């Protein structure tokens, strides 16, 4: 890049990104350092700084606490309707299958106990399981 | 986001506390009016809440949320057809030095908002993302779906228009 080209690039950056070097693309920041102390460079940066200074006067107020409350209020009905996430759904499925097997096994054993009295003794221990829905 | 995906509403509260101010600031500068900005930010957080289950942990929340907010702003532009500018409250001038200073600041801020709103939406987005939000050139270009050199052109044109409009009013 010739000196003319690099100064044109410096001008383009000042016009697009303003006075502050940290806003310039990383690849062009060396040009800021190179021309900032030249008369032409100072003039361009001063012009850019005038606009920056004006833009900086626009300072939106922070959010009102009511806005946060409204966001939470709005999400509440959706929270109640929410289906559990996939990983929790798979745990629930596994738990339901296990419970069904236990109850099925207990009921089957209870049926057998009607014919075999010694099995009825064991049923006393697992009786509560058989009562599960 | 994992807690949010699990339906934990307090996680949404924590997320909103952390991101609400910058999101509102961004949208307010984009649409030029606080009340509309608040509505849009509320909608954006609802989208976060609804999309949390599908969240990809490799995506950066802030980048994704900028996109959500920007898209909502574009929808708002399409629906409204034009931008409103913030009205000045004339009652602020009650004659006291503080009130005058406050009024002057409000007037300058209104001028800046008006100048921003007079830009084409893409030029305005370029200025807000690059100048105010200080996104990198690559991030801002990706968000707008344009090349980095196209972003630079938008910025050059936007700043030129802002200069023409604002510098004669510099106090």
Automatic annotation (TrEMBL), chain A:
The entry's protein name is Uncharacterized protein
> Which keywords annotate this record?
Membrane, Transmembrane, Transmembrane helix
TM annotation in the entry: 90-109
Automatic annotation (TrEMBL), chain B:
Domain RNA polymerase sigma-70 region, first and last residues per copy: 15-82
Sorted alphabetically, which PROSITE patterns does this protein's record hold?
A: SIGMA70_ECF
Checking Gene3D superfamilies in the record gives: 1.10.1740.10, Winged helix-like DNA-binding domain superfamily/Winged helix DNA-binding domain
Tagged with keyword Transcription regulation: yes
Do you know which CDD domains this protein is assigned to? Sigma70_r4 (cd06171)
Cite the InterPro entries for this sequence: RNA_pol_sigma-70-like, RNA_pol_sigma-70_dom, RNA_pol_sigma70_ECF_CS, RNA_pol_sigma70_r2, RNA_pol_sigma70_r4_t2, RNA_pol_sigma_r2, RNA_pol_sigma_r3/r4-like, WH-like_DNA-bd_sf
Q: Does Magnesium show up as a keyword for this record?
A: no
Q: Which GO terms describe its molecular function?
A: DNA binding; sigma factor activity
Pfam families under this entry? Sigma70_r2 (PF04542), Sigma70_r4_2 (PF08281)
- UniProt keywords, alphabetically: DNA-binding, Sigma factor, Transcription, Transcription regulation
Q: Which residues form the RNA polymerase sigma factor 70 region 4 type domain?
A: 111-162
Q: Which GO terms describe its biological process?
A: DNA-templated transcription initiation
Instruction: Please give the family membership noted in the entry.
Output: Belongs to the sigma-70 factor family. ECF subfamily.
* Protein name in the entry: RNA polymerase sigma factor
